[in-house]
Design a protein that fits this description.
The protein is an alpha+beta fold. Helices cover 16% and strands 24% of the residues. It is built from 3 helices and 6 strands. The strands form 3 sheets. It has a two-stranded antiparallel ribbon. The two termini are 36 Å apart.
């Protein structure tokens, strides 16, 4: 099985674009499709619109989201724990254990979202989906 991704897909997957900050991936798409799309424009809502053969009698639209699930770092404790607020909607049940990348001025920092170890949780806590404050 060949797991090598085409360069465009690799770049799309590696370009950070959390909700509200889609400009980086939109810039990448605009640059990559320059010369392919006949018209490229961004609208006031932040959408990137690329078109080919605009005057054709039949129209086809392909639409997709440019944003990713993202968080904003709100606090780093003296012990090194990082507390975040979500950007957009999130499903707190699938976040713990997720790989993340924190983008800093010094470059990306990889990590994993965790929660209080099971040995320190009460039985009731283990049976619930954690709220945002406890992820």
């Amino acid at each position: 099985m060949n797991l090598e991704l085409p360069p465009l897909l690799q770049d799309l997957l590696n370009t950070p674009s959390p909700t509200g900050f889609e400009c980086h991936i939109q810039r990448l798409i605009g640059e990559r499709f320059e010369g392919i799309a006949e018209h490229i424009e961004a609208d006031v809502f932040g959408n990137l619109i690329l078109s080919v053969n605009q005057d054709a009698p039949r129209k086809v639209m392909l639409a997709g989201h440019c944003d990713q699930i993202g968080f904003l770092v709100k606090y780093i404790s003296p012990e090194g724990y990082i507390y975040v607020d979500p950007l957009g909607g999130t499903d707190n049940g699938v976040i713990p254990g997720s790989n993340i990348v924190i983008h800093t001025d010094r470059g990306p920092v990889e990590g994993v979202v965790g929660r209080k170890p099971v040995a320190f949780q009460k039985q009731a806590d283990r049976e619930q989906i954690p709220d945002q404050e406890h992820i």
